[in-house]
Design brief:
Blueprint (H helix, E strand, L loop, with lengths): L9 H10 L9 H7 L2 E4 L4 E2 L5 E3 L19 H10 L3 E6 L2 E5 L6 E5 L4 E6 L3 H14 L5 E5 L17 H5 L5 E4 L3 H11 L1 H11 L33 E3 L5 E4 L2 E7 L9 E5 L4 E3 L22 H15 L5 E2 L7 E2 L1 H27 L4 H7 L4 H4 L11 H13 L14 H12 L1 H13 L3 H14 L4 H17 L3 H16 L11 H5 L3 H9 L4 H4 L3 E8 L4 E8 L2 E6 L7 E5 L1 H9 L4 H6 L4 E4 L2 H7 L15
Parallel strand pairs: 7-8, 8-9, 9-10, 14-15, 17-20
Antiparallel strand pairs: 1-4, 2-3, 4-5, 5-6, 6-7, 11-12, 12-13, 13-14, 15-16, 17-18, 18-19, 20-21
């Protein structure tokens, strides 16, 4: 039971029951496909290194296989959750297997003559290790001879140390193949440099603060759930794919790659296995509409590129493919079905891109366009195009952001007052009692969007106004119950919880030890630079040289005019030089106060004025991982 959750109102019940008629509920092919090829069900809980349960498949037993959607769940989302709840080891086709739904992403294993190739590694070591155990028990004990990352997102590389030994990669025995010229930069930079804000937003979107249940968390839509506090590992790729048509022969199988940058991730690729007639478009084709702009926060993507590379994939391999497997959800079998699936996904992204810009050219703002763009019926009724990850509404707005920037074109939004000052002025003008009364009227009539909007300035102007907070929480809750998109549901229900109970402790952080250690040196300095308190550092004059003894390079870092800069090379007569392997220098940069202990242990040497490190430490800011979102 979700603590504090209230019942769906008559308006929400009516809305969700009416929604059923918008969908082709008689189409059950996805249920057949999602269960096809099951070899073994999940053996039970995924357990963390401290013995705690980080994933329990029984948390989703409330999602009945044949049950109708509860009144507190939008029926399309309920259907997708029914598809997500079953997990285990599946045979996709001869020589190709997947472990699904013990993590937000899939583990795909391809068996060759003398070894196996792992394609994507889930988000955490523990889930990946459970998946590999299933494979070893039921399929093969052949060694891992290669790992492939299809793109730069954490749920596709985080479990890598659960499938391969880092020493085997370092020795060259097991290559890690990945797309792009700068995989490390995008994989680590996107998730860590802005990681505190991204993790906080992701915890909202992916239901990290919610209990599982019909009034709380269901599934992530594109996968079952993010595990709670996994070990997130990372090993840098050793073989980068930068051109379409590149081939590799591994374990007697040919792999052909299509390089697809600036799509669902900054670096991404599709893979064709001609002997198996098996294709993956990575996350550019899913059983869900994807994000053009993620709600957790990441670089805005190019919807036109989604369509472009999907069409190129059809052109290259569309006539030959007999199975399409993805790093999320379930496969598609049969050439005609695969072609229809990819064409529909291609046309959906192209339609969103083109119609958003058509309306932009007619003078619409992003929000105005998002309110009127609807997919053509043939696209909209295709379950794979429903908004279980991205949504049509925020994807349309994202196209504006990608192509036109952050300003919506309305001068009133160009230089507004900050939220708290705007709220205080609004409340002083309208009156707290009037706002609260209008909020109650809107809630009672089922106008929840307006209720949250009108109550927002009152909550921001007077966060101690319990009546306003409770009423806004109630309105957000009903919006969550009505949301088809699981991230929208997660955000609205998390907002209700925070309004009622205050900010919740964060369930995870993105800046794992492996992630920070794997940062390219330039990104490492970027990571530290965003922690510099600019006003405090305005008059600072600090220079430190860092000698990375294990990499044979030297960098100089300086802080002046409130800015931390760094470049490769030495500076003339630096006040302080810190020498040591990269892992130790990471410790000095992230926690300068650790330098003395590191020197005493022999991990680093300090040559010069050690007071410089204390001056540096005094300029570093601290981030609260649980900063408030729905209150000032």
């Amino acid at each position: 039971m979700c603590q504090g959750a209230k019942e769906p109102t008559p308006s929400t019940t009516a809305s969700n029951r009416e929604a059923v008629h918008r969908y082709d509920m008689d189409d059950r092919q996805d249920f057949t496909d999602a269960r096809r090829g099951l070899i073994a069900e999940l053996p039970g809980n995924v357990v963390g290194p401290d013995g705690s349960v980080i994933f329990d498949p029984h948390d989703f037993d409330f999602i009945g296989d044949d049950a109708e959607a509860p009144d507190s769940v939008e029926p399309s989302l309920w259907r997708q959750s029914q598809l997500m709840k079953h997990g285990g080891l599946y045979k996709v086709t001869e020589g190709l297997y997947q472990v699904r739904n013990n993590d937000i992403a899939n583990l795909t294993v391809i068996e060759g003559e003398d070894g196996i190739v792992v394609v994507d590694c889930m988000a955490g070591v523990e889930s990946a290790r459970q998946g590999m155990s299933l494979l070893r028990e039921h399929v093969t004990d052949k060694p891992v001879v290669a790992v492939i990352y299809t793109h730069t997102h954490i749920d596709h590389y985080g479990g890598v140390k659960g499938v391969v030994d880092a020493e085997d990669v370092a020795s060259g025995k097991v290559p890690i193949i990945a797309p792009g010229h700068q995989f490390d930069k995008y994989a680590i930079g996107e998730n860590v440099v802005a990681g505190n804000a991204m993790a906080r937003r992701a915890a909202y979107a992916f239901g990290g603060f919610l209990e599982s249940g019909p009034k709380g968390f269901l599934t992530c839509g594109i996968g079952i759930a993010s595990t709670k506090g996994p070990e997130v590992s990372y090993i840098s790729p050793t073989d980068l794919i930068t051109e379409t048509g590149t081939r590799r022969e591994i374990a007697g199988l040919e792999f052909e790659f299509l390089y697809a940058p600036d799509t669902e991730a900054p670096e991404e690729m599709h893979i064709w296995l001609p002997q198996l007639r098996a294709l993956t478009c990575a996350e550019n084709a899913n059983h869900s509409l994807h994000n053009i702009q993620t709600l957790r926060g990441a670089r805005t993507r190019d919807a036109r590129n989604f369509a472009r590379y999907l069409d190129e994939t059809l052109e290259r391999w569309g006539d030959a493919a007999e199975v399409h497997y993805g790093p999320h959800t379930w496969p598609v079998w049969g050439n005609a079905n695969i072609t229809a699936f990819i064409e529909s996904q291609r046309d959906t992204y192209k339609y969103i891109h083109d119609q958003a810009l058509r309306l932009a050219n007619k003078g619409y703002t992003p929000l105005e366009a998002a309110e009127v763009v609807e997919l053509p019926e043939e696209l909209a009724r295709n379950w794979a195009n429903r908004g279980y990850h991205g949504t049509l509404h925020h994807d349309v707005r994202a196209v504006f952001t990608k192509e036109l920037g952050m300003w919506d074109g309305d001068p009133v939004s160009l230089h507004p007052h900050p939220p708290v000052e705007s709220a205080q002025r609004f409340v002083a003008f309208a009156g707290a009692d009037s706002i609260l009364a209008e909020g109650r009227r809107a809630f009672d009539t089922g106008d929840y969007r307006w209720a949250t909007q009108i109550l927002h300035p009152l909550v921001f102007a007077d966060p101690d106004n319990t009546a306003a907070r409770e009423l806004q929480a109630d309105a957000y809750e009903q919006m969550g119950y009505q949301a088809e998109g699981p991230q929208w549901r997660g955000i609205f229900l998390s907002a209700a919880k925070e309004l009622r109970e205050g900010p919740q402790p964060m369930p995870f952080v993105t800046a794992s030890r492996d992630s920070i250690l794997a940062m390219p040196i330039d990104i490492l300095f970027d990571f530290v630079a965003v922690q510099i308190d600019g006003p405090k550092a305005a008059d600072a004059d600090i220079r430190i040289d860092f000698e990375f003894t294990d990499e044979g390079v030297r960098w100089t870092m300086w802080i002046r005019r409130g800015v931390l800069n760094a470049r490769r090379g030495s500076s003339p007569q630096p006040p302080l030089t810190v020498s040591g392997p990269k892992a130790a220098l990471v410790g000095v940069l992230v926690q300068p106060g650790s330098a003395q202990k590191l020197q005493e242990s022999g991990a680093i040497t300090l040559d010069g004025d050690e007071q410089v490190l204390s001056d540096f430490a005094a300029l570093l800011d601290e981030f609260d991982p649980s900063f408030p979102i729905v209150t000032p």
